[in-house]
What we know:
Layout: H1 13-33, H2 37-46, H3 66-77, H4 86-107, E1 111-112, E2 115-116, H5 118-122, H6 124-143, H7 150-174, H8 187-212, H9 217-244, H10 247-250, H11 256-259, H12 265-271, H13 276-286, H14 294-305, H15 308-328, H16 334-346
Antiparallel strand pairs: 1-2
Helix pairs in contact: 1-3, 1-4, 1-16, 2-6, 3-4, 3-8, 3-16, 4-6, 4-7, 4-8, 7-8, 8-9, 9-15, 12-14, 12-15, 13-14, 15-16
Amino acid sequence: MPPSPVRPPVRSATDVLERCRELVRPALVEAVGRLHPWTGEMAAYALGWADTAGNPDPGGSEGKGVRQALAVLGAEAVGADGSDGVPGAVAVELVHTFSLLHDDIMDADALRRQRPAVWKAYGTGPAVLAGDALFAQAVATLAEARGRYTAAAVRCLARTLGALVAGQAEDLRFEDRPWHGPDAVGPDRYRLMAEQKTGALLGGAIALGAVLGGAPDRTVNALERAGRHLGLAFQAVDDILGIWGDPEVTGKPVHADLRQGKKTYPVLTALAGEGRAARELAVLLDSGRRIDGETAERVARLVEEAGGRTATREEARRHLDTARRALRETPLTGAAADELDALFAYVLDRTW
């Protein structure tokens, strides 16, 4: 009996991200180059390629490129070439950048990746315009892609965009909700919002790759569900970093989410508890006191004592396990499936 073929070693997640960035980068540069020079300059700044004068910026951060990698791997996992997923990777990277530009304005976040956010560097109106330009170019990139699956890919992107906007709308509405009572935001409602706001784009990224790779609907839907659970795990980690993250890593002040009064999973699960810390937290939040300095430290301590941090860790692990199980249960090609699994696990490898 001949020996079983030896499978090549699985690349690390960082190697996978680098390989996919190198594959996608030329097409992404071309897409940004098709923008108006001014919006293209702001897009290059947002992507970490240039400074505000349009000069190459060696200190700029391009981000990790998780979404574009998911699109490439989504194509490879269904037996297609990674290049087939590149139009989807470019589209999701442009959409992700557009969403960050607009999110920073809506949340009044002055920093993004340890540099001034686009709206702080160029102004609010220009930043909105740049986001609009990226949105339009994302759709154009897919609509103009060659191949049999263009129309299906555009429909997939449209569904993703609809969910993304709906999730952001819910997140903004949460700001006016009370901390207690029938109109309060509970952990379950927050989870539904996060699945749209964060999960939709991760799920849409891997689904776009699979669509462009010619996968049947059943496989596309399974991969999209896996990506949405990955998004929930990703959001849970982000929520932890938003309260306890190192500013050198997050690029934002310590206790950033608390200072903004954001309703995040750690706080909401802590409030749902019944112990002393949960009661003290509820009184403090209901007081309307400005959360900064010592107050922010106290809120963070009460959230942790009431179990919010532990519950959010468990939330992240639960959704990551669900996402990885969905990958195992879907018929995929070996190497790409292993790389997807490594990339999924990478979500919880961040400093949190």
